[in-house]
## 1
Amino acid sequence: MYYFTYDPWIGKLLYLEDFYVMEPYRGLGIGSEILKRLSQIAIKTNCSCMHFLVVIWNKPSIEYYVRRGALDLSTEEGWHLFRFDKENLLRMASGK
């Protein structure tokens, strides 16, 4: 699952929301083919890059992406992911 978004510093990008290959099918080139197709879509639609998240404990996936040229922005650029939950959104929206 993916969608397009825009960053004022880097322009249009493809955001990869979910990408999972079930264990019995790993090592068959499925992941590489999915990344190839997503890369083609990103290039065809004039995206400057593709962003995605990987949980910190998923070392095999991190290594998989890094081997293919992905940059870990948490170490390369020092970015951290933050979230406001619904309770805090309601609190801020009410001006409290």
Note: The two ends are 36 Å apart (CA to CA).
## 2
Amino acid sequence: MRVLKEEHEVAALGAPHNPAPPTSTVIHIRSETSVPDHVIWSLFNTLFMNSSCLGFIAFAYSVKSRDRKMVGDLTGAQACASTAKCLNIWALILGIIMTILLIIIPILILQAYQ
């Protein structure tokens, strides 16, 4: 008899229900994309191969890229990093050419006078 009473209570109450609608939680995980800022390369070009001040300008863009990355502006950081990379390449090329010329020109001058 007890089983019939429990079945009657379940039938009378109906299926258990929750008055609140089901909720879901969405967690957005920001993927940390690595944007190189080329600060070390720019600093090297500024200190050692600063032809036409390109190393210093590249250093300024590198710092600007790092600042934008800290704020969360990855597009701006990538644009500044790309400019810094281009300026670093040109500073390196011009620095190497000037170093070679500073070695070759005195040798040629000494050979001309002998």
Note: Residues 74-112 form the longest helix (39 residues).
